[in-house]
Structures are given as structure tokens and as C-alpha cells.
Amino acid sequence: MFASATTTFIRKAIRSSTAAASCNAQQFRSISITPALLEKLNVQGLADKVNLEGQNVLMRVDLNVPLSKDDDVTVTDDTRLQAIAPTAKFLLEKGANVILCSHFGRPKGEIIETGKNGRLNPVVDPLKNILGVDVKKVDDCMGEEVEAAAKSLTKGEVLLLENTRFYKGETKNDATLAAGLGSLADYFVMDAFGTAHRAHSSTAGVTDYMKLSAAGFLLDKELKYLKGAVDKPNRPLCAIIGGAKVSTKLPVIESLLEKCDTILLGGGMIFTFYKALGYDIGKSMLEEEYVELAGKLMKMAEEKGVKLILPPDVILADKFAEDATTAIAKASEISGDWMGLDVGPETLEIFKEEIGKSNTIVFNGPMGVFEMKPFACGTITVAELMAEATDRGATTIVGGGDSVAAVNQAGLGDRVSHISTGGGASLELLEGKELPGVAALSEA
């Protein structure tokens, strides 16, 4: 299904400044959670139920920060550390002893001293600065030494455990590891949305050994926007779905057909849909095994009355390179050795119209190869349209690492309603799946 428009398009300059999304504990506390999400206990509810002063609280966080390639120990972006501060500071204000627990990279059960799969030592000093308190670090996440360190904590102290994935059982939801973590505290707070879709020892299994388990402010916020906005949106609801591989997005698109008024498609995956329409796609990306399913989704959208809009034009390149020769072509006129690497100007005018009349917009996946300047315009323009929609009062949600990177590249991180911290988790929520790390929490 194609939409059409004949209007002029002015390429906008890419703004390279990065917007750091910031929020304090009070901002998180002020977020209203939809009734459907009140079934699970959150950290505010935990504090209302229990006097946390002097109590050990195990807090699952995401400390997967980038490190300098030069020395493997310097944190180059502390965004994820800043994200855990509202919940950690809230617990400290309540007098709790906070025990931080996280994996770091993919060590696959091996103890690695440094680097992106190594020990969590590089985050200690940054956490001290962010939390404003001393952070003690142990070199394991369970066992007698760790239990002794946890028992010695006094009011308002912070203990950082070692990389949970040094144990192979972590990703298998091993009961021994879960019990070891559970022995350190009576209460658990889950605030690592990026791993909430995994049934791991430190995200789900550990709750079996806790008196109460609650969602942190960050997790609450993710649920409010990603689940609340899609399940009970202020309509019209528009989803902008992009990315390279159609295989990762087909389940999301199928689920959104039950919820959305409009779905706008972009990225490398559109060529699989073009193939389903019988178009020549030149050397563009194709997942042949999904052509038939793409065709079925287009038919399903038509039957449901959902506007599933494919780009009517694309930016072509003669090679996958920054210095490639480029051209604009109709989607039905691609041929030869040309490959599509971005959506075209006519497409962006259509997207502008659809986004402009939507009150809830979800953006997941880039429109093209935005890392290369000649093919960044589609993604950056969508980010700008999201910001404009936010300014007029729409709820705008950005999920997925590349989409978030593009919004920040455009300097618009502070002009959307919500930037999700979890790629896979956000996709599974949009698909309507239950997240193990949420399902395991206590009822409110």
C-alpha cells in the first residue's frame, strides 16, 4: 500500500550535539502509572509497606557502560549510571543499604579482569560521584565473603557486587546463584529494564528468595510509556518501524496491527516488502525467506483497516560507502546494481503528515544507514518530526539503540517524551509479551 504526495523537500542539516536525558527522583515519582500496571509493586509502594531503614535492598541495575578503548578502565558515557540514580538515592534517603547487582558484557562464565566483559571496577568511582556516597566493591556476587560484606553494611551504605555473568548459571536462571544473591537482602528492586525480558538468576530467579520484590522508578517509567501508551494510547496511534532486518521486526509489526491506526515502515527491511509486491530491488538488502510473510502482513493490514505505509521513494547508492554516487528513485523503479540506503523526500512528506496528526507515536529502528551522512536524512528528519509532535503535546516514545543514537545525534534527546533504555525488552513489550523480570515482581 503506497501513499503519494507531491511537495518539495528541503534537506535539513544534521546537528551533531548529543542531548543527555536527565531526570531526578522527584520527576520519576511524579509519573502516573496506568491502572493495568498497578498490579506490580513499585519502589514507592515498597517504602510505604516496609520501614527500609537499616534494611539491605538488592537492586538489579544495568551497568553496561562503554569503556575507553585506550585503557579499558575509563567510562566514556555514564548515561546508564545516571539512570539508576533516582531509585538508588530514594532507597538511600529511606535509610536502606543498597546492594547493586549487574552483569557486564558477555564473559560467558569466565572471570575476565578488564575490558567490556570484565570486572565492574571501572564504574566504582563514577558511581561514587553520581550517588554522592562511598561505594564498596567485592570481587564476587555470592559466597561467604560477599555475605559478610552485606551483613556489615550500616545505614545508607552502597555495596557493588561483581559481574553476575562470571557465573554460567546466571543466564540459565540457576537456582544456586539466585539463592546466593537472595541471601544478601530481604528486599529486591528491579531497575534494569534492558534485561527484564530475560529470565536470569539476577532478574527473575532471585525474587523467590525475597520477602518483597518491586520495580524501580526507571522500570516503572518504561512500563508506563511502552506498555501503557500502546495498550491505552491517546489516539491516533502511529508506529514508525525501521531497521535493517525484517526478521526482527515482523512480530512487532504483526502485534501493532492490532493496536495502531498507522504504521510507517523504513530501513533495510522495506525491500523485503517491495519484493513481496513484485518489485525489482537491485542490490538492496533482502531476506528472501520472509517475503511471503511480508505479503501476508500487508494483506492483514488492509483487512484490518490499518494504514501500513511503505516509502514510495528511496535514496539509492551505487555502493555501500560514504562517497557513493546517489540518486532518488520511485520504489518501483529500482534496478541494476543500485541499492536503497535511505527513504526519499516524498516519503518524508507523507511521514510528516501522518506524524502530524497522531497523538501517540512510537519510533523503533532507523530509516536508513544514518551512520553515513548521505543516508542519515530520513532518520534525522523523523527524529525532528517526533520532537515537533512532542512540542504540540503528543506522547512520543523512542526505543532501540540505533533510534536512540539517531535522536541524540540530532540533539533531540530532551524533546521526546521517553527514550527507552532497552532494545530487546522494548520490542517484546511492543509485541505484547510478558517480561520475566516484571512478572516475577510482587503484587502491589
UniProtKB/TrEMBL annotation:
InterPro entries: Phosphoglycerate_kinase (IPR001576), Phosphoglycerate_kinase_CS (IPR015911), Phosphoglycerate_kinase_N (IPR015824), Phosphoglycerate_kinase_sf (IPR036043). It is an enzyme of class 2 (transferase). Its EC number is 2.7.2.3. It holds the Pfam family PGK. Keywords: ATP-binding, Kinase, Magnesium, Nucleotide-binding, Transferase. Its cofactor is Mg(2+). One of its GO terms (cellular component) is cytosol. Substrate binds at residues 62-64, 103-106. (2R)-3-phosphoglycerate binds at residues 80, 165, 198. One of its GO terms (biological process) is gluconeogenesis. One of its GO terms (molecular function) is ADP binding. ATP binds at residues 249, 340, 371, 400-403. Monomer. This is Phosphoglycerate kinase. It comes from Skeletonema marinoi.
